[in-house]
Task: inverse folding
């Protein structure tokens, strides 16, 4: 285990610091920050509670709206959502909503609060395939409605991309384990090492449950035709999974080129630096002004010494040497590396699930499939591919299924 890999990057706020930050809030009526949160976590509500030293009330606001409040406090791209809506952004700088939320959920954990309560049993049961953020949120909502819930996970541990993709220094395993334990204590039964489509069929689940939620994450890394079957190439998903599984005990050499410019690419380059890679070069199709990655993650990468080369795309590859050409101006770049990591997107593995997938998503709008007992959520549903958006789909699919099973539709 490498200590740097497991060391959380951002320090938490102190009680004095969190109150000072909350005191910057303008107490907006119909607050834009809350309207901008996909999961409806209500930042305005919990910030107001913190401002008046009501940490317990703040924790209740977070947890009742977001079953993965501790996770989202660490990995949500708040600059894209709630902080972008913050009125203070037009005055000086937005309030650090994520850091306030982290303080609140840390307080909840330290004081052993038990906020969520299971609803009275309605005698119906739900099967959820996958155990990523949408699945975990949906499970909590179903339990609160009074359903029994079975979660089926093909891996040896629950969490999906939260566990096997997001680096330890951004999301400590201890934090994720506590979130999952809380959901199990609420009543969810998690079946590990169970691959639906191989160990059990979708028909088996439909026979035994009133509804089935397919919450399969995009866990497989995409490649590009020119890089196929190249022994010098790995996908971002492969590398991040290996790093997570081995607690940072991974090496791709001293000189690594990463191709891609999203948040996953930023996780790759910062992980490489954390595990001691000397030279990390990130070549990105987009130019800096149009970067898709979080500005905070990009800033962290630069701070750690990652070389960012923007505006170039690969034109050819010869073993471990890639030639890039600039998108807009005449120019060519040739780089050789010990390993090449492709962070050019991911796709879901849906073998045996009878899903019509196009570009990684189901082809219909909403969460219902043509099968009246089968619904979808998470990465394979339409929408952003962020943790907080997955939480949103988990909440919405639970509400949709509940309406159907209660005869409200």
Result:
């Amino acid at each position: 285990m490498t200590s740097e890999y497991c060391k959380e990057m951002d320090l938490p706020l102190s009680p004095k610091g969190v109150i000072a930050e909350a005191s910057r809030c303008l107490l907006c009526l119909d607050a834009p920050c809350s309207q901008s949160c996909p999961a409806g976590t209500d930042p305005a509500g919990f910030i107001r509670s913190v401002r008046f030293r009501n940490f317990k009330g703040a924790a209740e606001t977070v947890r009742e709206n977001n079953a993965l409040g501790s996770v989202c406090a660490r990995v949500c791209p708040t600059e894209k959502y709630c902080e972008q809506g913050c009125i203070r952004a037009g005055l000086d700088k937005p309030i650090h909503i994520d850091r306030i939320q982290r303080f609140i959920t840390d307080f909840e954990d330290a004081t052993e609060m038990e906020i969520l309560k299971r609803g009275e049993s309605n005698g119906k049961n739900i099967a959820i395939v996958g155990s990523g953020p949408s699945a975990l949120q949906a499970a909590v909502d179903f339990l609160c409605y009074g359903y029994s819930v079975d979660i089926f996970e093909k891996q040896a541990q629950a969490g999906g991309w939260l566990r096997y993709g997001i680096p330890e220094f951004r999301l400590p395993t201890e934090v994720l384990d506590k979130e999952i334990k809380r959901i199990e204590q609420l009543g969810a039964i998690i079946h590990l090492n169970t691959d639906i489509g191989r160990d059990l069929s979708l028909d088996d689940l439909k026979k035994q449950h009133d509804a089935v939620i397919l919450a399969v994450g995009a866990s497989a890394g995409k490649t590009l035709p020119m890089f196929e079957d190249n022994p010098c190439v790995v996908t971002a998903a492969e590398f991040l999974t290996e790093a997570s599984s081995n607690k940072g005990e991974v090496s791709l050499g001293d000189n690594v080129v990463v191709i891609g410019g999203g948040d996953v690419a930023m996780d790759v380059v910062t992980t490489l630096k954390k595990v001691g890679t000397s030279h990390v070069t990130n070549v990105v199709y987009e130019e800096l002004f149009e970067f898709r990655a979080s500005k905070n993650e990009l800033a962290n990468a630069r701070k750690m010494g990652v070389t960012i080369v923007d505006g170039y795309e690969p034109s050819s590859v010869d073993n471990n040497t890639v030639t890039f050409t600039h998108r807009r101006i005449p120019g060519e770049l040739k780089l050789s590396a010990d390993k090449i990591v492709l962070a050019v997107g991911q796709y879901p593995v849906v073998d045996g699930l009878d899903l019509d997938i196009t570009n990684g998503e189901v082809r219909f709008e909403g969460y219902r499939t043509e099968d009246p007992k089968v619904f979808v959520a998470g990465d394979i549903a339409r929408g952003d591919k962020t943790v907080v958006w997955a939480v949103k789909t988990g909440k919405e699919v639970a509400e949709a299924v509940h309406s159907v099973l209660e005869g409200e539709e």
In short: The mean pLDDT is 94. DSSP finds 16 helices and 17 strands in the chain. The radius of gyration is 22 Å.
